[in-house]
Amino acid sequence: MTPMDLAFMHAPTGLALTENRIVRQCNLRFAEMFGDQVDAFTDMPLERLYPSLKDYEKVERVGGDRLRKTGRYEDERIMRRLNGDLFWCRVRGTSLTPETPFKQGVWSFADLSAERPVVALTPRERDVAILTCQGRTSKEIGLMLNLSYRTVEAHRARLLQKFGARKLPELVAKFSGMPL
């Protein structure tokens, strides 16, 4: 192995080289994070590591736009290990072909599960959480989601409880990094 190969394979962060959103090569930390040996990920579609097809497609849409503009993309999102466990992950990528953003890329993955546990949200709680982070009032959210403001308040109360927050600003702070 060359020194560059050793550096890639033993980097302290998960690394993957991708083509058209398929892992062509990954390092030891990536394999450990997602739960198998390095060889198991060769030629694996990244879709298998997302919680849902909807999440996979959303990152393609949002990330593709940013990659075309800047050649780089980063976010924090929930990913899925091969055993099905969900975890928060910081993802950063560089497209080697910005005009075709996912044709070739270099991606890093950092496991955030130690500092940010996954909290299960219903689709409606997620909608309320996102709109709350955008600074919307309960009445505005109610109008947007066709709910009464009291129902929105009930969702917010459950969110406060789930996240162990006492007040709305603390809840919004705990949402930081949530992919919107």
From TrEMBL:
Q: Which UniProt keywords apply?
A: DNA-binding, Transcription, Transcription regulation
The Swiss-Prot or TrEMBL record annotates one GO molecular function as: DNA binding
Decide whether keyword Disulfide bond is in the record.
no
All residue ranges annotated as the HTH luxR-type domain in the record: 114-179
Any one GO biological process: regulation of DNA-templated transcription
What the entry lists under SUPFAM superfamilies is as follows: C-terminal effector domain of the bipartite response regulators, PYP-like sensor domain (PAS domain)
UniProt keyword Amino-acid biosynthesis present: no
Q: Name one Pfam family in it.
A: GerE
Q: What is this protein called?
A: Regulatory protein, luxR family
Q: What is the lineage of its organism?
A: Bacteria, Pseudomonadati, Pseudomonadota, Alphaproteobacteria, Rhodobacterales
